[in-house]
Amino acid sequence: SSGFWTLTELAAQRGQIADKVAAAKFGTPSPIDDPVREQQILDSVAAKAPGLGLDAASVVRFFRDQIEANKVVQRGLYARWTTHPGSRPPGRPDLATEVRPVIDRLNAGLLTELAATRDARARPSCDARLAVTARLVDARRGLDRLHSVALGESVRSACSHR
Ligand SMILES: C=C(O[C@@H]1C=C(C(=O)O)C=C[C@H]1O)C(=O)O
Q1: Could you give the CA distance from residue 124 to residue 120 in angstroms, rounded to a whole number?
Q2: What is the mean pLDDT of the chain?
Q3: Which reaction does it catalyse (predicted)?
Q4: Is residue 162 a part of any domain in this protein?
Q5: Which residues span the domain enclosing 8?
Q6: Could you tell me if residue 143 is inside a domain?
Q7: Which ipTM score applies to this complex?
């Protein structure tokens, strides 16, 4: 199942960067949901899809799931930090200069991997292979339940054979 390793690894990294996103926003007026930023990402990946041999609507669906999963993590962390103030992050990273550039790189990598795995994602074996890979990445990264669930959600529409 090594074919889906990089794709799954990047999705896991994207879910873990949500910790920094949440830390950047927690205790500030900036809401977890930023529809303008989300639309910019979706428009950008949709525009790049045809040149990579990918269906724009499928790519948008994949990134919508990535974004939803990211917000699931952010909300989970807000709840944790509200209940347990001692677990709050010590600093506040800058969203625009420190966090979003990392997300942009992960988005670019994910797009590249969607193209690299296009044929494998179209096969019936995709679901099982992706599930195995997600468990491996999960274990390797020692994800907690919140990030583990988010990883599963974030790749749920990666297989294209349905
Ligand atoms: C990650 C952020 O938080 C949310 C999640 C996003 C994402 O996963 O790309 C984009 C916008 C926000 O709705 C952010 O604001 O950058």
Answers
A1: 9
A2: 97
A3: chorismate = prephenate
A4: no
A5: 2-154
A6: yes
A7: 0.99
Asked if residue 33 belongs to a domain, the reply is yes
Q: How far is the CA of 133 from the centre of ligand 1 (A)?
A: 25
Distance 67 CA to ligand 1 centre (A): 6
CA distance 101 to 107: 10
| Residue 101 belongs to domain with CATH number | 1.20.59.10
pLDDT tens-digit map of 39-86: 999 999 999 999 999 999 999 999 999 999 999 999 999 999 999 999
What is the Å distance from ligand 1's center to 87 Cα?
Answer: 22
> For ligand 1, which residues put their CB under 6 angstroms from it?
21, 33-34, 37-38, 41, 66-67, 70-71, 100, 103
Buried b / exposed e over 62-80, threshold 16 CB at 10 Å, is bbebbbebbbbbbebbeee
> 80 C-alpha to center of ligand 1: Å?
19
Closest ligand 1 atom to the C-alpha of 30? Answer: 15
Q: Which atom of ligand 1 is nearest to the CA of 17?
A: 1
- Tell me if 159 is assigned to some domain: no
Q: What is the separation, in whole angstroms, between the first and last Cα of the chain?
A: 19
Total domain count, the chain: 1
